[in-house]
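Lab notebook, entry 407. We have the chain sequence and a SMILES string for 2-acetamido-2-deoxy-beta-D-glucopyranose, and the next step in the workflow is to get a structural model of the bound complex before anyone spends time on docking refinements. Request logged below.

Task: model protein plus 2-acetamido-2-deoxy-beta-D-glucopyranose, output structure tokens.
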Amino acid sequence: MVRLQEVTPYLVLAVPLTFILITTLFFSLSSTTNPIFLPLPTSPAAAFPLRRRSPSGRPGECDIFSGEWVPDPRGPRYTNRTCWAIQEHQNCMKYGRPDDGFVKWRWKPEGCELPAFDPAQFLRLMRGKSVAFVGDSVARNQMQSLICLLSPVEYPEAIWNAPDQQSIRWRYAAHNFTLAIFWSPYLVRSAESDPVGPTNNGLFSMYLDELDEQWTNHIDEFDYVVVSAGHWFFRPLVFYESGRAVGCYMCLAKNLTDLTRYYGYRKAFRMAFKAINGRKGYRGVTILRTFAPSHFEGGMWNTGGRCDRTGPVRADEGVLRGAQLKLYTIQLEEFQKAEEAGRRRGRSYRLLDVTPAMLLRPDGHPSVYGHRPEERVKLYNDCVHWCLPGPIDAWNDLLLKMLEADR
Ligand SMILES: *[C@@H]1O[C@H](CO)[C@@H](O)[C@H](O)[C@H]1NC(C)=O
Ligand SMILES: *[C@@H]1O[C@H](CO)[C@@H](O)[C@H](O)[C@H]1NC(C)=O
Ligand SMILES: *[C@@H]1O[C@H](CO)[C@@H](O)[C@H](O)[C@H]1NC(C)=O
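Result returned:
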């Protein structure tokens, strides 16, 4: 089920205000002892090259997350014929996407090379181990990319399916490797309180101080847990704390204050990391996969916005702004706090910082090619998910590099 977000129109007045706020946040977080934020960026775009992080988290190594997309004549590593794990809506070639240039690029970190995913190496490294993705359909998108990248060596068998079919466990028998996805778009406990809602797109209740036990109760069983969240925070939400409604986002209820989506987003990550740090039996490495920007142009998902570009934009053209910048900043802040708190308890955290790379790929989404032209679907033009094969495959190139560095 793919029902997605509504992106609030970007208010002209909010631009300078947001910028001042973000700049202030960067200022207050910047310090020489801080590995994530190096001294102050002059603009949000400039924040990226100034951050230096290595796959292992150790200083002095190449930052695989800053770089550019360079032409790759080899083309995709799988197709919709060789891989069955491509979800319909992301099977862009099937639905008539006319250009295939978007699969002929590779991510080139500044100062080093990112090797193409080696499925045999991945499975060798992961023998006797397990990886869980926690999040929404973009997390699933990455898991499906991983299944396709691994497919030349082995296909998994589903060993467990949640009743709603949204959470799945896969087993790679020949390599004793377990892969799983836990569906948790809000990371905390949530429920659809009103299927219609004020914007005709569902109204969700988020219980900001309650764990989503459907994933938190299972993390002990995993060596790596890849956490992410994002696009579901563009929907109308009601926030609950101590069992009481304390406010909402875009819910249009007269008796509730609009606390903004950011309130819920920050609390959701804080609660998720608190659960991870507090879980006694958990010995795994927690990986935060950062926000993957959407690229609607000329409107939003429901007002005719599309993403028709056929190639990446240059590193200096990609600017993260508005809501997307704010969500990204919140993630990094909460990640950093969790990492510090976790270090005292022997917890390991890693950042899979895909945001700078994906910001440059407006060409990587299904746009109108996620379904047959005559089909009426909820997400008309999909500029949120990523075509398979496509630039999202680079997330797993990066993941493998991190797993390798982690040994
Ligand atoms: C794969 O993509 C081709 C176009 O390149 C399309 O004709 C075909 O129907 C697709 N096949 C499957 C199984 O998705
Ligand atoms: C598979 O991996 C698990 C976890 O490391 C281990 O306990 C088990 O013995 C392994 N099974 C086989 C058949 O190697
Ligand atoms: C707000 O009003 C709605 C009905 O209009 C009610 O169901 C809800 O309980 C109220 N919430 C609070 C926090 O008073």
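Notes for the group: Confidence is low (pLDDT under 50) at residues 1-52. Worth checking against the assay data. The chain has one domain: 9-406.
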